[in-house]
Amino acid sequence: MKRTLLFAALSAGMLISCQDAADVVDQLEDEVSTEIEDLEEEEETETTEELAAINDESKHVEGAIECITQQYALVQEGKFDEALEYYSAKIKAKMKAKIDEDPSITEQWKAGTNVPDEMFEEIIESIKEDPGFFVFEDGMWRMNQK
User: Fold this and answer.
1) Which of 118, 111, 57 is nearest to 67 (CA)?
2) Which pLDDT belongs to residue 74?
3) DSSP secondary structure of the chain
4) CA-based radius of gyration for the chain
5) I want to staple 83 with a disulfide (CB 3.0 to 4.6 A). Which of 8, 74, 108, 141 is the partner?
6) Exposure string (b/e) for 103-118, b if CB count within 10 Å is 16 or more?
7) Tens-digit pLDDT profile for residues 52-96
């Protein structure tokens, strides 16, 4: 009888500890899930805030800088169709026609964006001084020159 009682006590203890372990695992999964959701929201907010000026008509200088920065990055990645979206409709049509006529232009375009950091900073500074080559069109700042 002592063995039966001892076995019952051990079994009950194991069941209770297994249930506690399951509860702890569930709690940890919930915490990790919440943390992941929080990080995703934070990243989305940061991205939105980082590029907020490009869609804000009142932020000409900041929007122009975001426009040129995004376009350069896309060109360097070889995403020319996406990069064309950062041109005004007038310039985009001209560039598209030139690229269709001579696709090697994309390589020249890409080479033109491979500038030293100092030179890119000079470009940014000149945009800060005079963002006149950028127009607000269809809800975002776009470059109005090639």
Assistant:
1) 57
2) 96
3) -HHHHHHHHHHHHHHHHHHHHHHHHHHHHHHHHHHHHHHHHHHHHHHHHHTGGGG-TT-HHHHHHHHHHHHHHHHHTT-HHHHHTTB-HHHHHHHHHHHHH-TTHHHHHHHHH---HHHHHHHHHHHHH--TTEEEETTEEEE---
4) 29
5) 74
6) eeebeebbeeeeeeee
7) 889 999 999 999 999 999 999 999 999 999 999 999 999 999 999
